[in-house]
Request: fold
Amino acid sequence: MLILLDNNAPRGLVRALVGHNVVEARERGWATLKNGDLLQAAEQSGFELFLTADKNIRYQQNLVGRKIAIVVLSQLRWRLVRL
Reply:
């Protein structure tokens, strides 16, 4: 699965998602894109999943018709996420 890791998500997730192709938004040069533009770029590039810690994304973006799955993490600190 091709996964895009948002700038605010713990970087340790990359190591935990063995067997998946995980790319950080920074690596793609997308660090300055806002969520709407970031989601659009991710979909156009074939990403299947967007991992973020932005709990307000569903209120900030119209997610109807999106092709990419979105997972919102409830914790930002890697120590807590990996538990």
Observations:
- Residues 4 and 28 are 10 Å apart (CA to CA).
- The chain has a mean pLDDT of 85.
- The radius of gyration is 12 Å.
- Strands lie at 2-5, 21-24, 49-52, 69-72.
